[in-house]
Design a protein that fits this description.
- By secondary structure, the protein is mostly helical.
- It has a domain at 38-106.
- The chain is 48% helix and 0% strand.
- The chain contains 4 helices and no strands.
- Helix 2 (48-55) crosses helix 3 (62-76).
- Residues 21-29 and 31-37 have low confidence and may be disordered.
């Protein structure tokens, strides 16, 4: 019985480790071509649609996300690297607010 429990925990640990590692990896085909240094000016205007397609790929409000993301990208020349969060990579993108004080960029 003790062997079974030990094997179960080892297999569970290995499975959990693989799941977390798989989430951290991004396919180079999916990720937009952006400057690895990030920051403002790292995305040329012609690359904004591709970067925003990736940024908005996980949202249920795709058309609104794409509209605002492209607007922000064209102003800031930067889009955060993942589908959610990481706005600290793009200060302009992060700090542009609506009249009500909410975030303008998705």
């Amino acid at each position: 019985m003790a062997k079974f429990i030990a094997v179960f925990f080892v297999v569970s640990f290995l499975f959990a480790t693989q799941c977390f590692n798989a989430e951290e990896l991004e396919s180079p085909a999916e990720a937009p071509a952006i400057n690895k240094n990030g920051g403002e000016g790292s995305v040329p205007i012609k690359e904004c649609p591709k970067a925003c397609d990736f940024r908005c790929s996980a949202t249920s409000h795709k058309s609104a996300c794409l509209m605002y993301c492209n607007l922000c990208c064209k102003k800031c020349l930067c889009v955060p690297s993942r589908t959610y969060g990481h706005k600290e990579e793009c200060p302009c993108y992060n700090n542009w607010k609506t009249q009500e004080g909410g975030p303008k960029c998705p």
